[in-house]
Specification:
25% of the residues lie in helices and 27% in strands. It is elongated and about 65 Å long. The strands form 4 sheets. The protein has a 7-stranded mixed beta sheet with strand order 5-2-1-6-7-9-10. Strands 12, 13, 14, 15, 16 and 17 form a 6-stranded antiparallel beta sheet that branches. A hairpin with a 2-residue loop joins strand 12 and strand 13. The protein is built from 8 helices and 17 strands. With 314 residues, it is of the alpha/beta class. The N and C termini lie far apart (59 Å).
Length: 314
C-alpha cells in the first residue's frame, strides 16, 4: 500500500519504523511544525520528523492540516491509506475521504473508553486494571469511529503513565501491520463503537498535578504515577514547589490533619491524607535536582508535624 503517515511524538515512532521496514511504501510523513525548546528557544523537530528524515521519507509540516493547500499536498500522494498516531490536529472530513481505505488511527486505550487527548494518563489515574491499543477507522467525530483491532495489556501495580505509554507505543507497529494485511484481504471486521462505557480523557494541564491531601492516599498515589513524567504531581514545602515523582499509599488510622508530616525516617517522608498515608520516595524541591528522599534528607531537615501544601505568598 501507499501510505501517508501522520504523527508527532515518540509514541508514533515505532509504528512509523515498522511501516518503513514492511512491504508498504510511506510516501510522506506529516508532523507538527518545529517548536522552540528550552531557554535558548532553538527550534526542535518532532520525534516523527527526526525518524522520517533518518529513513529518507519526505516530511510535510503544515501549521493547519485542514487548510486547502495542506489537503491538496496530501491528495497528490494518492495514498491507499493514511495512518495516524498522536498527530495533534483534528482531520477534516475532506482529508478523511482521500484514501481508498480511509484513515486508521492508533489510539492508546481500549475504545470506547478514554476518547480524547490523554487516555494513557487517565487509565493510570483512575486505577484501571487493564489498558490497550485500538486501531480505529477514523470518522469526523472525536475517536468515535469503528474499532478494527484491539490488543490488551494489564497495568502493573506501580505502573506510571510513562511506562504504560512506552509499552503501548511498542505495540503500535505490529498491530497496524496486522490491520493493513487484514484490510487488504477484506477480512477485517468493523465493530461500531457504543456510547455506553465511553469516557472523555481530557488534556492535562500543569495545575491538574496539585495534590489535595484531603483525598485518599491510594488515589493520590495513582495521581502521582499517572502524571509521571508530565505534568507531574506536586505540593508545596516551606513555600516552594515540591514535585512528587514516586510515592506509595499505606493504610493508617485517622489522626493528623491532611498534609501533616507524620513520620520521617532516613528513606521516607510520610504524609497524612484524608484516608491513609502517602509515603514519599522520590521528590524534587523547586530549584533542586530530582532525588531519592534519602538524599534529599541529607541536605534538608524535615520535621514531624510540619505541613505540606501551602504555596509561597505573592
Amino acid at each position: 500500500m501507499r501510505v501517508v503517515f501522520m504523527g508527532t511524538p515518540d509514541f508514533a515512532v515505532p509504528a512509523l519504523q515498522a511501516l518503513a521496514d514492511s512491504r508498504h511504501e510511506i510516501t510522506l510523513a506529516v508532523t507538527q511544525p518545529d517548536k522552540p525548546k528550552g531557554r535558548s528557544g532553538k527550534l526542535s523537530m518532532s520525534a516523527v520528523k527526526s525518524c522520517a528524515v533518518s529513513l529518507g521519507i519526505p516530511v510535510f509540516q503544515p501549521a493547519k492540516v485542514k487548510n486547502e493547500e495542506a489537503v491538496e499536498r496530501i491528495r497528490r500522494e494518492q495514498p491507499d491509506v493514511i495512518v495516524v498516531a498522536a498527530y495533534g490536529q483534528i482531520l477534516s472530513e475532506e482529508l478523511l475521504n482521500i484514501p481508498g481505505y480511509g484513515c486508521l488511527n492508533i489510539h492508546g486505550s481500549l475504545l470506547p473508553k478514554y476518547r480524547g487527548a490523554a487516555p494513557v494518563q487517565w487509565a493510570v489515574i483512575n486505577g484501571e486494571e487493564k489498558s490497550g491499543l485500538t486501531i480505529m477507522q477514523m470518522d469526523k467525530g472525536l475517536d468515535t469511529g469503528d474499532i478494527l483491532l484491539q490488543e490488551e495489556t494489564a497495568l502493573q501495580p506501580e505502573e506510571t503513565a510513562g511506562s504504560l505509554y512506552d509499552r503501548l507505543s511498542a505495540m503500535g507497529g505490529p498491530l497496524i501491520l496486522k490491520a493493513l494485511d487484514l484490510l487488504e484481504e477484506g477480512t477485517l471486521t468493523r465493530k461500531p463503537q457504543s456510547a455506553e462505557g465511553s469516557s472523555y480523557a481530557k488534556m492535562l494541564k500543569k495545575e491538574d498535578g496539585l495534590i489535595d491531601f484531603g483525598r485518599p492516599a491510594a488515589e493520590i498515589g495513582r495521581l502521582v504515577r499517572g502524571l509521571n513524567p508530565w505534568p507531574s504531581a506536586y505540593t508545596y514545602y516551606e513555600g516552594k514547589m515540591l514535585k512528587i515523582w514516586s510515592a506509595s499509599a499505606k493504610a493508617s488510622p485517622r489522626g493528623a490533619a491532611p498534609g501533616t508530616v507524620t513520620a520521617v525516617t532516613k528513606d521516607e517522608i510520610r504524609i497524612a491524607c484524608g484516608d491513609g498515608e502517602l509515603i514519599l520516595h522520590e521528590i524534587q524541591l523547586e530549584g533542586k535536582k530530582r532525588m531519592q528522599v534519602h538524599d534529599f534528607l541529607l541536605g534538608t531537615h524535615v520535621r514531624e508535624g510540619e505541613m505540606l501544601g501551602t504555596a509561597r505568598r505573592v
